[in-house]
Amino acid sequence: MTTADLAAAAPTDRAEHHYELLRQMLRIRRFEERCVQLYSATKIRGFLHLYIGEEAVAAGAMAALTPADAIVSTYREHGHALARGIAMHSVMAEMYGKATGCSRGRGGSMHLFDAATRFYGGNAIVGGGLPLAVGLALADQMADRPVVTACFFGDGAVAEGEFHECLNLAALWHLPVLFCCENNLYAMGTRIDRAHAVTNLAARAAAYGLSAVDVDGMDVLAVETQTRAAAEFVRAGHGPYFLEFRTYRYRAHSMYDPDRYREKAEIAQWQQHDPIDALVRRMRGDAELDDDALARLDAEIAAEIDAAVQAAEEAPLEPIEDLTRFVYAESRSHDG
Amino acid sequence: MADTTYREAIREAIREAMRRDERVFLMGEDVGPYGGAFGVSLGLLEEFGPERIRDTPLSESAFVGAGIGAALGGMRPIVEVMTVNFSLLALDQIINNAATLLHMSGGQFAVPLVIRMTTGAGRQLAAQHSHSLEGWYAHIPGLRILAPATVADARGMLWPALRCPDPVLIFEYGGLYNASGELDGGAAVDIDTAAVRRPGSDVTIIGYGGTLSTSLTAADRLADDGIDAEVVDLRTLRPLDDATLLDSVRRTHRAVIVDEGWRSGSLSAEISARITEQAFYDLDAPVARVCSAEVPIPYARHMEQAALPQPAGVVAAVRAALGRSDG
């Protein structure tokens, strides 16, 4: 659906579309709320970085991309993975470290991968995914494929050298990269104004010659509209585009973070702009959603999560004989 | 049969690969009009154009990482990094991405990338252009590490490296670019095994890259003393070809490893350990090592040469292993 199509969509279609965006945001939030419980129950271990509060970015941005597009993500990627279409049971099984996980238990929460949806991880080095995105886009450009590589990263990555190298390279070579910066104001515990002399990140991207805008990352419709427009620009061969999504994570950086560096009032203030509440209010106001429909949606998502948890519980572990598989390719001739 | 230089052999290998497979392209600093920092890619821009002979900004992490991404995206990139010292600016991409993606993705995403870089000292380039850090890379599961020491390997290793679905790092020894040798066509060589470059029965001298010639020179001198040294060229630093090494040591009962890397925590230490672990009872003498002095490589010629493995040092180590250290 193009931006124009969206604006012209019949009311019913629009309602269905909003319902789908709501569904994706709720799936992410409820999935992660369950993950917290499972973490406390020691079913999930390692690092667990929650996306709660930022769901509008994943849901809105993924709705604007096509299956042929590529995604490069970060260690806070459950939302990206689910909204992109990786099956929830596959993501949950990965959190459990099971053989049926999307990375066969070798990645965990931070390293979700899925070839079928062109989801290239799950990168836990801040800024480390940006060069991959530049290279994926280079391959598409050289092969003349009208494909966008959407690269997600946070405000913390803007401090890394790779950010600056990659924005320059993408702009220099007019590469089809959609840089999606999720500015949630904190790099772990360091607030953006304690780490950056210039905190307007879109302005810094513009300095490298990229088209760049900032977007209300708490408004899923704004995210989708802006991402769609940016993706069209990139797909048309006009070069890379930079979107700064202004958003906020409600939870601590990870399960290990005591969250000492910010005031509770600040979190509460952002929760006033909760992206799920905002869309629900809007849909109710436009008579696109009633209590029954919302209850049905909640029940449907709860059932999906229950099924994913049960499947993960029952799934086999990767056999230990396979420990060293996938260090090197198993066939030299796989690519012909 | 005409002589070819090591530099020309690599250039011809790149040319052949680009003619055979349109997914192959070369990317790096000054590989285009400049012709490459060491002249390897001279003339390739004219044949293949700027899309496939692609100059990059001085952004090692970005362009090495872009090579990884392009490989994920179906291309077969050759990324040139000027020297191994500069590759440290791309270490994150090489180790955290190239080496891990296949495993971390449960086998979904292979990285068929070749990274070429220059290694080694001997040209008075001092401590930021002269180090031999290939042993560090050989520590990393997921990478394949090649070290061509001959013109034939310089010519023949690239195509199989590009055909390999794994990331392959090729370490070109800087002091060899002008070395010449006979080249019998352009046949691809295997990239899995070590090679016996000189058969012998009294001792196994193990070298690679730049230290192959050091080892062969030493073997010639030892022959004058009636010592028959076998010289093994590692060729592949990871995975190491234990079988060829151990077969040789089991025959000669003595091993001397010659490595331009430092000895502490090194490739030479690894090889020594493997020999000790697997052929201890075949040894007639402790495994010996001839490595670079543990200093950053200095500029002044006399100091630089004193820091590097020399044939005289190899001869002395062999003689000691044979109990002839009194000369």
Topology, pairings included?
The complex is a heterodimer of chains A (336) and B (327).
Chain A: H1 3-8, H2 11-40, H3 55-63, E1 70-74, H4 78-84, H5 88-95, E2 119-123, H6 129-142, E3 149-154, H7 161-172, E4 177-183, E5 186-187, E6 190-191, H8 192-195, H9 201-206, E7 211-216, H10 220-235, E8 241-246, H11 264-271, H12 275-285, H13 291-314
Parallel strand pairs in A: 1-2, 1-3, 3-4, 4-8, 7-8
Antiparallel strand pairs in A: 5-6
Helix pairs in contact in A: 2-3, 2-4, 2-12, 2-13, 3-4, 3-10, 5-13
Chain B: E1 3-5, H1 6-20, E2 24-28, H2 44-48, E3 53-55, H3 60-72, E4 76-83, H4 84-87, H5 91-98, H6 101-104, E5 114-119, H7 134-137, E6 144-146, H8 151-156, H9 158-163, E7 168-173, E8 180-182, E9 195-198, E10 203-207, H10 210-224, E11 229-233, E12 236-238, H11 242-252, E13 255-262, H12 267-279, E14 288-292, H13 301-307, H14 311-321
Parallel strand pairs in B: 2-3, 2-4, 4-5, 5-7, 6-7, 10-11, 10-13, 13-14
Antiparallel strand pairs in B: 1-8, 6-12, 9-11
Key structural traits:
heterodimer; A: 336 residues; alpha/beta; Rossmann fold; two-stranded antiparallel ribbon; 13 helices; 12% strand; B: 327 residues; 2 domains; seven-stranded mixed beta sheet; 14 strands; 37% helix; globular
As residue ranges, the low-confidence spans of chain A are: none
The SSE order of chain B reads EHEHEHEHHHEHEHHEEEEHEEHEHEHH
User: CATH superfamily of the largest domain in chain B, called what?
Assistant: Thiamin diphosphate (ThDP)-binding fold, Pyr/PP domains
- Largest beta-sheet characterization of chain A: 6 strands, parallel
Oligomer: heterodimer
Q: Into how many domains do the coordinates of chain A divide?
A: 1
Question: So what's the CATH class of chain A?
Answer: Alpha Beta
Averaged pLDDT of chain B, please? 96
| Through-space gap between termini of chain A | 37 Å
CATH C-level category of the largest domain in chain B: Alpha Beta
Helical content of chain A stands at 40-55%
Low-confidence stretches of chain B: none
CATH architecture of chain A: 3-Layer(aba) Sandwich
* SS field, number of helical segments of chain A: 13
CATH topology of the largest domain in chain B: Rossmann fold
CATH architecture of the largest domain in chain B: 3-Layer(aba) Sandwich
How much strand content do the residues of chain A show? 5-15%
How many DSSP E strands of chain B? 14
Please name the CATH topology of chain A: Rossmann fold
The whole-angstrom Rg of chain B is 20 Å
| Count of spatially separate domains of chain B | 2
